Amino acid sequence: MQNNIIQVEERPPLPMFLPLCLQHLFAMFGATILVPFLFKVDPTTCIFLNGVGTLLFIFLTKGKVPAYLGSSFAIISPVLLVLQSSPYSAVQSGFIVFGLVYVLVAFLIKKVGTAWIDVVFPPAAMGAIVAIIGLELAPTAAAMAGLTDKTPNFQHIGVALFTLAVTIIASVAFRGFLAIIPILFGVVCGYVAAVCVGMVDFTPVMNAPWFKVPTFSAPTFDLNAIMIITPAVLVTLAEHIGHLIVTGNIVGRDLVKDPGLTRTLLGDGLATSLAGAFGGTPNTTYGENIGVMALTRVYSVWVIGGAAVCAILLSFVGKLSELIRSIPSPVMGGVCLLLFGVIAVSGIRIFVDRQVDFTKSRNMVMTGTIMIIGLSGAKITFGTITVQGMVLATLVAVCMSLVFRVFDKIGIMKEF
Asked: Which end of the chain is more exposed for a tag (fewer CB within 10 A), N or C?
């Protein structure tokens, strides 16, 4: 340990180890349970598979990348679309293929590098797609908060707005570790408020056993679900690479070269396919946990692994599953009003960080077209397969990017 920094391969002193592990567990907890909450599946199953997936990721990356895998937000919109007409088992088949695409991309990158990613997804396209992820989910958040009900329930709205207010204050005013867990803090405070106004029924929690094996389920092959969910992999792929670069900057190592993108993508992909096979959700590296490392200057992969083990053990607490299920929808709706907005702003941030010049017609046309296609409700149906929203926007983005690239090559693309 040098200059109060605990490096990737170092183990913290034993008295520090468990608190450091719990910090990472708490950092990912609020956002991770939101995804299964929206899908109405057992949250402890996802917590368990996130933990197992993280350990698999650590093993495949030779213990060189301190990254925790949590539930991905990029798949929320396409999955909610699939669930309108299909069971969750069909969604699982989409997750399995989602992960296998990661594996294929891992080997492709090993052969040809990463330059093609900017060709397929220039910043003007990527920023628009990430923004759509949040904006497309805005009606879902408003509905959960009770803000779109024909007959307003002011108790529900009050709890949602209280939760939102607490989460906002926590995000902008808290310091230290609390600054990393505003979502979890907001959920806890909102839950307490819901209890105070009589919105929570503790009977299922009291009747639940203390020990219970997470609920696992088998997938069923569904081509429609696969076609709708799989395009989201292009978004999470860019997110994965970005997180790896940021993590490398924090720990002072070039993780893109060692252990390399091939290994990190392989770990992420196999963890996602494993989650799909047993009833979980796709995994992604979590920015919250990257923030914990930057704050504490503890980069130890042993701590990340310890957090994963804690998550696995926690998933066997039977009362936890029922406790999460008992969280009223307005509480999660209040958190989502902020969280989905932050996702949308993250897309705008890509424009800023990558210095996208909107005085150039190509950038303005690409971003504008992608956002309107993604948010307009436009849909295209091929037989039994319907694509819309973020998925359709992603396909349009890829097509436009490739066409513009051809125009560049033949010299007909103007520079302004």
From this structure: C
Residue 7 lies in a domain: no
Contact 187, 335 (CB under 8 A): yes
Nearest-angstrom CA–CA distance, 117 and 111? 14
Reduced to 3 states (helix: H, G, I; strand: E, B; else coil), residue 210 is coil
pTM over 0.85: no
Q: Which residues pair with 163 in a beta bridge?
A: none
User: What's the rounded Cα separation, in Å, for the pair 142 and 342?
Assistant: 15
What does each C-alpha distance from 405 to 47, 332, 408, 415 come to in angstroms?
A: 42, 42, 5, 13
Summarised one tens digit per residue, pLDDT across range 207-227 is 888 888 888 999 999 898 898
The answer to whether residues 137 and 127 touch, using CB atoms and an 8 Å cutoff, is no
- Whether residue 1 lies inside any domain: the answer is no
| CA 249 to mean position of chain CA atoms | 21
Crossing angle (nearest 10°) for helices 389-410 and 233-251: 80
Host domain of residue 71:
14-410
* 180 confidence band (pLDDT: 50, 70, 90): low
Instruction: Give a yes or no: residue 97 inside a domain.
Output: yes
- Answer whether residue 116 is part of any domain: yes
> Is the backbone of residue 62 left (phi > 0), alpha (psi -120 to 50) or beta?
left
Residue 1 in this model has a pLDDT that exceeds 50: no
- In angstroms, how far is the first alpha carbon of the chain from the final one? 52
Helical (H) or strand (E) element with 283:
strand 283-285
Q: What is the Rg, in whole angstroms, of the alpha carbon atoms belonging to the chain?
A: 21
Q: Decide if 160 contacts 186 (C-beta within 8 A).
A: no
Structure tokens at 43: 């949250």
Say how far apart CA 270 and CA 377 lie, in whole Å. 33
Residues in the chain: 416
| Three-class HEC string of 375-392 | HCCCEEEECCEEEEHHHH
CA distances from 362 to 126, 374, 394 (A): 14, 18, 17
DSSP character string of 303-318? HHHHHHHHHHHHTTBH
Q: Where are the beta strands (DSSP E) in 20-176?
A: 69-71
Closest CA to 158 of 201, 188, 194, 198: 194
pLDDT tens-digit profile of 254-265?
A: 888 889 888 999
Q: Virtual CA dihedral for 54, 289, 137, 189, nearest 10 degrees?
A: 110
